[in-house]
Amino acid sequence: MTRSLPLVVLVSGRGSNLRAIEARIAGGELPARICAVLSDREDAAALAWAADRGLAVHPVPRRQYAGRAAFDAALGDVIAGYDPALVVLAGFMRILGARVVERFTGRMLNIHPSLLPKYPGLHTHRRVLEAGDSEHGASVHFVTSELDGGPVVLQARVPVLPGDDEAMLAERVLVQEHRIYPLAIRWFAEGRLRLDGGAVWFDGRPLEAPLLANGTADAAA
Question: Concatenated DSSP letters for 88-112?
């Protein structure tokens, strides 16, 4: 029987991926439970939404700590206090230091709005348009101390259309984020997905390349 995977979700803004994950849990499609929603911002809209849903919320404001090391230590302690099997970064906009990442190695996922390794960091939609790329997308990856550099699990691609601006492109990418992130979490809950020796394993085999939605991923679902 698939376990109900305990999650801690980290957010900084409105929490659209958090909402997509909770919707899949509520609909019985994702065998998980959200133990707590954490944020580096007390005013994050996602915290208010989570509290309204009856979820535990825990702000950890960066400004309360003297430096990054102190913040990372405090954040890591708060996360560990909820004893999650998986830590989910869902629009968490603060770079985590190596010490907190290492505490949760192999059980921390992130979703990034680009086809990694292209365009790590911010303003991915703008950079894709400026480069004249024909496609864009989103990537789910395990978190390492390298910014957006951890092993990629799953990707979804979207075309860049004539006349696209940042907002239009971002909206199409976000639709795919909401689809692939719960799927990757489900695989982890089912024991099909793991990080071992710095490599992603899926269904007992190391991945040679990220799974693709509308392709291998859909077949494997």
Answer: EESS--SPPPHHHHHHTTTSEEEEE
Residue of 210, 90, 93 lying closest to 156 (CA atoms): 210
Specify the CATH number of the domain 5-220: 3.40.50.170
Q: Which residues of 5-134 form beta strands (DSSP E)? A: 5-11, 32-39, 57-59, 86-89, 108-112
Q: How are beta strands 152-159 and 86-89 bridged, if at all?
A: unpaired
pLDDT digits (tens, 9 = 90+) for 65-120: 999 999 999 999 999 999 999 999 999 999 999 999 999 999 999 999 999 999 99
Taking the C-alpha atoms of residue 103 and residue 109, their distance in angstroms, rounded to an integer, is 13
Report pTM: 0.95
Domain ranges of the chain: 5-220
Catalytic annotation, residues: 112
